[in-house]
Design a protein that fits this description.
Chain lengths: 450, 226
């Protein structure tokens, strides 16, 4: 991880944005504080000036010169400047020798440059003062060095600037730390993703357990990865099983044709061999058709055509369709169908699923047994039989394609029936399960979702 | 003389279809191309058309759409490759009269073509069907054979009605299933056979001439010609 990568991270960009916003708001705040403080300081300063002037004014005219001298004399820091001038402009009192033309006689406070009061070019800043004409025609000017006020302002500015720099530094540091943290998380995800792309489908994105955004994202992706792993596993198993299950009939077909060719014989012999070969071919095609069908169902495209399905009507149709076959096979067939709410789904696929369950039940139950189809008021579809039940370990394997119990070898079929039922259930969000506590097998589709 | 237009680009399949149709005494004209096929179809004179779904030049569905748009009502049997299940719906919606998925048995194709040609145009208004000794009262849902009244289930009634409407005609398992049952599904087992067997036991009793006749390896035929 390089520093240059930092600039690209979302965390860093967000930090920069927030830093900018913060600088803006801090500047605004500072401006406000500075303006308020400066105004307050200036106001206080002016009040003090006005107070001194008022004191001199309240002194009797003959004592005013002494009062001014007194004010100046009592100031050890030489902050104060003042002058009392008679009508001809001659200085009567104070430490300003010549009347400063700069001063306006309006009784208001103004900034006064040092030079105007005959002070040197160098020294501690400007002054603030006011001038006025006394009732007897004399002129008074009083000024005070404004250094203190300026210093206050300067200190304030420095403090605010230091605060601004500090918070900006903190924000940037936070941004860098956060960016590094997020880059490290992404680096971890990248490593996991590379491993997965490299073929290790069991790998998952790292989750810290803090429940933050990254964890949530990783969680979502991990669920997706699990599904992909399952699908890839299915495809692989299906591929293996296709190879296995199709090799047998294809080999049989080839052997049969080869044998017929070698043996020769009459036209009827050849005809018989060809008819057998066609039957073999049909079996292979039926397997392919079933595979494509499962593929189609699993792709989920059929969901677009979902409608309201009347389960009661569907179940009655299924019962009516299978009853003759069950009876013919020497089984007792019962249907216990009670009114249930309609469900959203694909009626053809649901019928096919129920038909597959019934087909299995009829196929595997020995004569004299019972096959029972039921629908309860909660929309639970069940097909129960008194057959041999499912062998141990078959209940989970049954959901994979081509899995057939050993007994099934003696029955026609491609081992895809229950896989299709499982796929249809999954497409609808229904659950398919097999009941343990039953004399034979009891397959249940719970159609209630959520 | 029955004339069939076969629009099919796959040479081997076309040869087999033409051969099978010729065998039952139908004349055929073959076209391997959608545009030429449409032209031939528009020129008319055919009793039925088999139309492949995927064609060079013009897609099968488009051929069908244009044919119907130009007012032709020649019955069309759409033929499509394995697995294109949605096509069935689209094919029928575009104006196809029947649909067959590849690979198919040739007897199935011939049976469906024959059914298309003999299918009566428009809605039938008759209330009584009778073929040989078997009589169906459609209004009162009553079945009789000669003097004997036969008790049938609703499904068996529909099955028998389909047999009578297509009397003398070979009906395959899938044709019967599609006509009588409501859910699209491929009943691979001998389910249909069991249903037909039941119906047959009710219609053809001991000593009576058989009417529902098994055609070996293909299906059944309602034959009351004694």
């Amino acid at each position: 991880m390089r520093l240059s990568e930092l600039r690209g991270t979302t965390a860093f960009r967000l930090t920069l944005l927030f830093s900018l916003l913060m600088v803006g708001s801090v500047l605004l705040l500072f401006a406000f504080v500075y303006w308020q403080t400066a105004a307050l300081l200036g106001h206080r300063f002016d009040q003090q000036l006005a107070g001194e002037v008022r004191e001199i004014l309240h002194t009797p005219p003959e004592a005013q010169a002494a009062a001014l001298d007194n004010l100046i004399a009592s100031d050890p820091h030489e902050d104060w400047r003042g002058g009392l001038f008679d009508t001809s402009g001659r200085s009567i009192a104070g430490n300003i020798g010549v009347w400063p033309d700069f001063v306006v006689l309006d009784g208001e406070s103004h900034d006064i440059p040092r030079r105007a009061l005959g002070l040197g070019r160098h020294g501690h800043g400007d002054l603030r003062g006011l001038g006025l004409r006394l009732p007897d025609g004399r002129r008074l000017v009083i000024a005070r060095r404004a250094d203190e006020m300026h210093e206050m302002r300067e200190t304030l500015t420095q403090a605010l600037a230091a605060g601004l720099v500090g918070s900006l530094a903190l924000a940037l540091l936070g941004g860098v730390v956060m960016s590094f943290a997020s880059l490290r998380r992404i680096e971890g995800m990248h490593r996991a993703a590379s491993a997965i792309m490299g073929g290790d489908l069991t790998r998952r994105l790292p989750v810290t357990g803090s429940g933050d955004d990254f964890d949530k994202l990783a969680g979502i992706v991990n669920v997706m990865l699990a599904e992909i792993e399952r699908l890839v596993g299915d495809i692989k198993a299906a591929g293996d099983n296709i190879a296995h299950d199709l090799r047998t009939p294809l080999t049989r077909l080839r052997t049969r044709l080869e044998g017929a060719l070698r043996r020769g014989g009459t036209l009827d012999d050849h005809r018989a061999a060809m008819e057998d070969a066609i039957a073999d071919g049909d079996q292979i095609l039926a397997t392919f058709r079933a595979l494509l069908r499962i593929g189609e169902v699993e792709a989920g495209a059929r969901r677009a055509g979902f409608t309201q399905v009347d389960l009661v009507k569907l179940m009655h149709s299924a019962a009516e369709f299978f009853e003759p076959l069950a009876t013919e096979s020497g089984l007792t067939f019962t249907a216990d169908i009670v009114p249930a709410a309609a469900v959203r789904g694909d009626p053809d696929l649901l019928f096919e699923a129920v038909a597959n369950l019934l087909d299995n039940a009829v196929k595997f139950t020995p004569p004299g047994g019972t096959v029972k189809l039921s629908l309860d008021e909660d929309g639970e579809i069940a097909v129960a039989d008194t057959g041999p039940g499912l062998p141990e370990g078959f209940k989970t394997a049954i959901f994979q394609r081509f899995t057939r119990g050993d007994r099934a070898r003696h029955f026609p079929g491609n081992g895809l029936g229950l896989s299709l039922v499982a796929a249809v259930a999954r497409l609808h969000g229904f659950t398919l399960s097999f009941d343990e506590d039953w004399p034979g097998c009891r397959a249940v589709i719970v159609t209630k979702t959520g | 003389m029955t004339r069939i237009l076969v629009i099919e680009d796959e040479e081997r399949t076309a040869l087999e279809i033409v051969g099978a149709l010729n065998e039952v005494g139908m004349f055929t004209r073959h076209s391997a191309d959608g545009i030429e096929g449409l032209q031939l179809a528009m020129d008319g004179g055919f009793d039925a058309i088999t139309l492949d779904r995927l064609l060079p030049g013009l897609d099968g569905l488009e051929v069908l759409r244009q044919l119907r748009a130009r007012g032709s009502s020649t019955p069309v049997l759409m033929v499509s490759a394995l697995g294109e299940i949605d096509d069935r719906v689209r094919g029928l919606r575009a104006g196809g009269d029947d649909y067959l998925v590849k690979p198919f048995a040739l007897v199935e194709l011939v049976a469906r073509i024959e059914a298309l040609i003999r299918r009566p145009r428009g809605e039938s208004t008759e209330t009584v069907l009778q073929t040989g000794p078997v009589r169906m009262d459609l209004l009162n849902r009553k079945v009789t054979r000669g003097e004997r009244t036969i008790d049938v289930t609703q499904r068996e009634f529909r099955l028998l009605e389909y047999f009578l409407r297509n009397a003398g005609q070979l009906l395959t398992r899938s044709m019967l299933y599609e006509a009588v049952w409501d859910y699209k599904f491929d009943p691979g087992t001998n389910l249909i056979d069991v249903h037909i067997g039941r119906l047959r036991r009710k219609i053809d009793c001991e000593g009576e001439a058989p009417t529902i006749v098994t055609v070996r390896g293909s299906g059944w035929k309602f034959d009351a010609s004694e």
